[in-house]
Amino acid sequence: xxxxxxxxxxxxxxxEYNTTGNEYEIDFTQSTTFEETSDDFNDSEIxxxxxxxxxxxxxxxxxxxxxxxxxxxxVDINPxxxxxxxAGKDLIMRKCSIVDDSNVKVELTLWDDDTDLIxxxxxxxxxxxxxxxxxxxGNKNLSVSSGSILVIEPKDNKEAAAIxxxxxxxxxxxxxxxxxxxxxxxxxxxx
Length: 191
Known about the structure:
By secondary structure, this protein is mainly β. The longest helix is centred in the C-terminal third of the chain and has 12 residues, at 158-169. 6% of the residues lie in helices and 36% in strands. It has one helix and eleven strands.
């Protein structure tokens, strides 16, 4: 049987708690619904995630609070940090930057489970569906929120392949700037 599931969150499976061997799992909430499909259901009806990628050089023109789809390379990955929210909730945060072939670098914040998906010694290509645009001290930034989808080293995605090729080329990195006009340097090319 095939079911249509809405309002669930797909995330990377925590290997220490997941015995299925699957790479992903779905979290269900009180608003999650399940609807059995008809017997004549054609699995080609299941849609792929569609993206409307925005280049990072456009972020200054996008209003704070909006969600955008981006594809880039994570760089300047900092260690995880425990913090306490204004509401008193304990959270885990990881700051890094994302850079793309528009030669702009933007600060990116990962939260809680997403902080475990990367480490400081990597520079992965990522796709983020619905990254939230924020602003701090006049500089735009992005965060991966509970409604975002983070895909690390995506397979079979033309945009991700183009970003990896650009990044491995190295020459374009000499012109990458952030809103403070900082130059991004990388010591070794990725394979």
